[in-house]
Structure formats: C-alpha cells, structure tokens
Amino acid sequence: MAIQFTTHEVKDYLKEKRRLKLFLADLFSAEGQGLKSLHYVFCSDAYLLEINKQFLQHDTYTDIVTFEMGEDPAVTEGEIYVSVDRVVDNAERFKTPVNQELHRVIFHGALHLCGFKDKSRKEAALMRSKEDEYLEKYFRKK
C-alpha cells in the first residue's frame, strides 16, 4: 500500500504526512475497502478546472476530483486532485481553519473511493457525517 502527496504550483499546507498516511490506511480498513495505492495532488483552481473539463466535462470550479484507477472494486488504486485555492476560500466562507477544511476534503475523497456518494440529500448527509467522524478521530488523536 502506497499513499503519496504531491503539490503542483501551490503552497504545501499539509503537515504530519506520515501520520496522515497511517490514518488514511486505517480509514480504508474501517470502511472495509482494500487499498493498493492512493495519490493526492494538491493544485490550483485553474489546474483542477482543466481536469474537470477534460475528464468530467464540467466547466466549474470544485475543491476535489476523485478517480478510481484500478479494475478491482474491492481494492482502491486512486488519484485525488484537491484545489488548495477552493479549500482556502471554503475555510474562509465556513469560518473554519484551513487545516481542518483541508483534512475534510482529504477524507471526502477517500470516502468516495470507499463507495460513499453525495449526489442526493440523503447521500450527502451520510457523507458529511462520515467526514465529521473522521475529522474528530484524526484531530482527537494528537
């Protein structure tokens, strides 16, 4: 199992990467999802907009785009692109620390790869509840 974090032309806000990798591995395990590889790319709005247009045909800004790259649905091989610009803006908008919003998005992408959806109101509520659960666990463990 390999988890990687890279940045593309943005400030690196991520601290305690080793601890986060271990926590993410535990998240996948707790959700009953195998994990082979996971690559997070932290980028700008402009970069993620191009990915959103090219691969999803969406011409809108977003904070995250998640791709399952593997063929076995029981074992994740994923790529997650996170717009640091959106995370910072959302943190201001929701009056939450950037570090907390960044981790919410990180866990959100992982949960998508574990099979959680957020298209309906009911799915979105469950997703938010799971994000809150993992945020509480992650920040409590310090």
Automatic annotation (TrEMBL):
Top EC group: hydrolase
SUPFAM superfamilies assigned: Metalloproteases ('zincins'), catalytic domain (SSF55486)
Keywords: Cytoplasm, Endonuclease, Hydrolase, Metal-binding, Nuclease, Ribosome biogenesis, rRNA processing, Zinc
Annotated EC: 3.1.-.-
InterPro entries: MetalPrtase_cat_dom_sf_prd, YbeY
Subcellular location: Cytoplasm
Cofactor: Zn(2+)
Note on how the cofactor is bound: Binds 1 zinc ion.
Domain of life where this protein originates: Bacteria
UniProt main location, coarse: cytoplasm
Record: residues binding Zn(2+): H108, H112, D118
Primary role: Single strand-specific metallo-endoribonuclease involved in late-stage 70S ribosome quality control and in maturation of the 3' terminus of the 16S rRNA.
Family: Belongs to the endoribonuclease YbeY family.
Protein name: Endoribonuclease YbeY
